[in-house]
């Protein structure tokens, strides 16, 4: 199961091809559009969000609202393309309007220009832009749809923006409460006072021509134990999740469970005891590991934490070098957000859902959804017996 995306930030559209989904999986375009709308929300977004109203069009792979087993082709039109037709024209002649020749610190501009030998860095900007995450959310939401058939629920909330952090004591809510409170916040923060302080922090940064990053926590509930593997490095689920999350524009750090905090503690304070309940069934008395041990899910909630850097495009640009004249001057400015932590959280949910759906596909296989569900139910019975001490190795 895989997907590939294509398209530029100001091109005519973004597209994706999604391959490997089981047949007979229900697909509702409205559910994808809900996730696309969430990605465009959040206090601190820029003017572009007022222009675009992202909606997906499915061009192949779905018939009568169900997957056929063939590749899906997805498309999201860029409404802003009307203003960029000459700049983003597929055929010549080339125009010099809106050339980028003063790279922006923190962006892919200069590194990409060096790699591909571009002098007009718009050839880098257009593809490296976080606009690409719109089609990624659309593609990965198909994975979220698959996970629903196995009871998996993925959500996130924001724990910090800039210097404003949710107090530790306010994080000890149930996951249900955390999700509900975050949904009511313009910055997806589950603590009302912190939410207001984050909005004020964003407004100050906007007025100063600056930008802000933050911390996101993401949770996946009801995962079956046994996803991923310890037997090869590239099959470890923690590594695969970290790669997916670090591929999101602006994400600079990923933690699982207690993450970096565990490095300052002793093993007895970090690892999760294995216990027996009153029915002599195995359970964990804590979840400091964040639901992953040895690259494999252990049945506890999956808990991930992401660090997003401040957006590099500033209205008061940092120093740069003009590649045309090789003289020092401020970096060029493009239309951008002041803070997009909320949007990054939605993208993070999507890519994690995709990686988990991929793990379910690998574990339970099958060309159709019915086959997958049958294999899943059989495995769940084996797991229940194993945890209760009832599983016996069959005679060969």
Mind explaining what this structure looks like?
This protein is α+β, with helices and mostly antiparallel strands and 396 residues long. It has one domain: Chorismate synthase AroC (Chorismate synthase, AroC fold). The protein is 33% helix and 20% strand. It has 11 helices and 17 strands. It has a 5-stranded antiparallel sheet with strand order 8-7-9-15-10. A 4-stranded antiparallel sheet has the order 1-2-6-3. Helix 5 packs across helix 10, helix 8 packs antiparallel against helix 10 and helix 10 packs across helix 11. The chain is globular. The chain starts with a strand and ends in a 9-residue tail after the last helix. The relative contact order is 0.16. The mean pLDDT is 95.
Which helices and strands appear, and what pairs or packs with what?
Blueprint: E1 2-7, E2 13-19, H1 29-40, H2 48-51, E3 56-60, E4 62-63, E5 66-67, E6 72-77, H3 109-116, H4 122-128, H5 133-148, E7 153-161, E8 164-165, H6 175-183, H7 192-207, E9 214-221, H8 237-246, E10 251-256, H9 267-270, E11 274-276, E12 282-284, E13 292-293, E14 296-297, E15 302-308, E16 319-322, E17 327-330, H10 341-364, H11 369-387
Antiparallel strand pairs: 1-2, 2-6, 3-6, 4-5, 7-8, 7-9, 9-15, 10-15, 11-12, 13-14, 16-17
């Amino acid at each position: 199961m895989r997907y590939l995306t294509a398209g530029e930030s100001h091109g005519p559209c973004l597209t994706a091809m999604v391959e490997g989904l089981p047949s007979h999986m229900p697909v509702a375009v409205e559910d994808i559009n809900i996730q696309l709308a969430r990605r465009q929300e959040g206090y601190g977004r820029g003017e572009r969000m007022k222009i675009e109203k992202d909606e997906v069009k499915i061009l192949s792979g779905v018939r009568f609202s169900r997957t056929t087993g063939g590749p899906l082709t997805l498309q999201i039109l860029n409404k802003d393309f009307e203003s960029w037709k000459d700049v983003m024209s597929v055929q010549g002649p080339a125009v010099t309007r809106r050339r980028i020749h003063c790279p922006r610190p923190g962006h892919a501009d200069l590194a990409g220009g060096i790699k591909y030998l571009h002098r007009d860095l718009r050839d880098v900007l257009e593809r490296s832009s976080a606009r690409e995450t719109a089609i990624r959310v659309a593609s990965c939401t198909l994975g979220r749809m698959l996970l629903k058939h196995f009871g998996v629920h993925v959500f996130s909330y924001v724990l910090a923006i800039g210097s404003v952090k949710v107090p530790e004591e306010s994080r000890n809510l149930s996951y249900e409460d955390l999700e509900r409170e975050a949904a009511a916040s313009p910055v997806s923060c589950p603590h009302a006072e912190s939410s207001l302080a984050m909005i004020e922090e964003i407004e100050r940064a906007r007025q100063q021509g600056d930008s802000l990053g933050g911390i996101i926590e993401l949770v996946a509930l009801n995962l079956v134990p046994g996803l991923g593997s310890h037997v090869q490095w590239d099959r470890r689920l923690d590594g695969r999740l970290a790669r997916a999350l670090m591929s999101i524009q602006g994400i600079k750090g990923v933690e699982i469970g207690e993450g970096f905090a565990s490095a300052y503690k002793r093993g007895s304070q970090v690892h999760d005891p294995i216990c027996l309940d009153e029915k002599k069934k195995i359970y964990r008395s804590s979840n400091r590991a964040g639901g992953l041990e040895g690259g494999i899910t252990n049945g506890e909630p999956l808990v991930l934490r992401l660090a997003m850097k401040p957006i590099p495009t500033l209205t008061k640009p940092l120093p740069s070098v003009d590649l045309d004249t090789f003289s020092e001057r401020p970096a060029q400015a493009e239309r951008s957000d002041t803070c997009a932590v909320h949007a990054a959280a939605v993208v993070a949910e999507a890519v994690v859902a995709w990686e988990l759906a991929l793990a379910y596909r690998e574990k339970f296989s099958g060309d159709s959804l019915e086959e997958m569900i049958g294999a899943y139910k059989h495995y769940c019975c084996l797991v229940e017996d194993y945890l209760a001490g009832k599983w016996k190795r069959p005679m060969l």
